[in-house]
Design a protein that fits this description.
The protein has helices at residues 5-13, 31-42, 58-68, 81-87, 100-106, 125-133, 144-159, 169-178, 203-207, 211-214, 224-232, 234-247, 285-293, 307-310, 324-335, 339-355, 361-374, 383-402, and strands spanning 21-26, 47-54, 72-75, 95-98, 114-117, 137-140, 164-166, 186-193, 254-258, 264-270, 275-279. By secondary structure, it is α/β, with parallel strands linked by helices. The chain is globular. It starts with a helix and ends with a helix.
Length: 403
């Protein structure tokens, strides 16, 4: 099962054009969300914010609401509802909601045309499922949705005729390389990554690194969780899983390339040997905007790629012995079922533990691997199974860290 991209393209091209598309941003206070708001501000004649949501950042959410005047805001942490309500007391037209259920319900609102799923982690799965069932165009930045439940998401997207457009820079690059290729067969997907800040370190040096070291990403400005995942290469493993479902390509046809310059965002090799790539400066606003505007391209203010200044483009094979998380992601793909869900849950636990200095960098892979072995495996999971698996795997991973 994969998402029928050709059908989705036809659906998008048949969209009825209106003055302004109404956009719901799940995770508006994060890196993707704030950059999406910049895109919307640059094209206020085309896009309007219908809803903004956040988990805890009440002050920033209120600032965004004051600027963009959405119809509604949602704070997932119910304990912060009163605080948000007070901050927006001077905006009587903005409805304020709280809680996980409110996230699921708001994406179903009739006026919404597009939902940007920029929440981080497993929490993005449920509202994304609700948005798909409501037939909203999905601009997917929450890769965990496809990592955890890729087959189910593909089934739902096809069943409800819901287009899913990638926002990850790599998957947007692949998508852009495939536009116009029709049914031409893919021989290989070339999925690039910077390699993170520890690529050149020895095992002994990696033993001693701390979260502050990992958070100094060499080329991208991202949130803390994703930046740590990039340092372990788990982020790239998740992107392999995401690519498998988005483009219907088996994992053995997806090659990970370390590309320190982060200029080639990814590429596609076809059966005739031709390789098409998308290049650009490291700026997430471009893939965000392309997901909003596809099949059209709009003006985007910002830096432009200067290949003379770049001077060189380098590519290396990843070291899966040093960065075990990438190997574990491929093992999860091989096993299928709920195993990617197990890996994701364990990874979220160890990622947070590393940021809190409760486990070392190498221990993250060790805990994930042990969690994979100890959590109940289900070859044919349902949506309910994913939620149970997530809870069980988190519990096991937490116990392993605390031993």
């Amino acid at each position: 099962m994969t998402i029928d991209n050709e059908r989705i393209i036809r659906l998008i091209r048949r969209e009825v054009k209106r003055e302004k598309k109404q956009i719901a941003i799940l995770g508006s206070t994060g890196s993707i969300g704030t950059q999406a708001l910049d895109v919307i501000a640059q094209h206020s004649d085309l896009y309007e914010v219908y809803c903004l949501t956040a988990n805890n950042k009440v002050e920033l959410l209120a600032q965004q609401a004051h600027q963009f005047k959405p119809a509604a805001v949602v704070i997932a942490n119910e304990a912060r509802y009163d605080e948000l309500k007070q901050l927006l007391s001077d905006e009587p037209d903005i409805k304020v909601y709280a809680g996980r259920q409110a996230l699921d319900e708001i994406v179903e609102a009739g006026p919404i045309d597009m939902v940007l799923t920029a929440m981080v982690g497993f929490a993005g799965l449920s509202p994304t499922v609700h948005a798909i069932k409501a037939g909203k165009k999905i601009c997917l930045a929450n890769k965990e949705t496809l990592v955890v439940a890729g087959e189910l998401i593909c089934q739902l997207a096809n069943q409800y005729h819901t287009p899913i457009l990638p926002v990850d820079s790599e998957h947007s690059a692949i998508f852009q390389s495939l536009v116009g290729e029709g049914d031409n067969e893919i021989e290989k997907i070339l999925l690039t990554c910077s390699g993170g800040p520890f690529r050149m370190m020895s095992d002994e040096q990696i033993e001693k690194v701390k979260a502050a070291d990992a958070l100094r990403h060499p080329t991208w400005d991202m949130g803390a969780k994703i930046t740590i995942d990039s340092a372990t290469l788990m982020n790239k493993g998740f992107e392999v899983i995401e690519a498998k479902w988005l483009f219907g390509v088996p994992a053995e046809k997806i090659q990970v390339l370390i590309h320190p310059q982060s200029i080639v965002h990814s590429a596609v090799q076809f059966i005739d040997g031709s390789v098409k790539a998308q290049l650009g400066v490291p700026d997430m606003r471009l893939p965000i905007q392309y997901a909003f505007s596809y099949p059209d391209r709009l003006t985007l203010n910002g830096s432009r790629l200067d290949l003379f200044a770049a001077q060189k483009l380098e590519f290396f094979e990843p070291d899966i012995q040093k960065f075990r998380c990438l190997a574990l992601a491929f093992e999860a793909i091989r096993m299928g079922g709920n195993m990617p869900c197990i890996v994701n849950a364990a990874n979220e636990v160890v990622n947070e533990a590393f940021r809190q200095d409760r486990c070392s960098f190498p221990q993250m892979a060790e805990v994930i691997e042990k969690t994979m072995a100890q959590t109940t495996y289900d070859k044919n999971p349902s949506l309910d199974t994913y939620f149970k698996t997530d809870t069980e795997a988190r519990s096991i991973a937490s116990e392993l860290i605390n031993k």
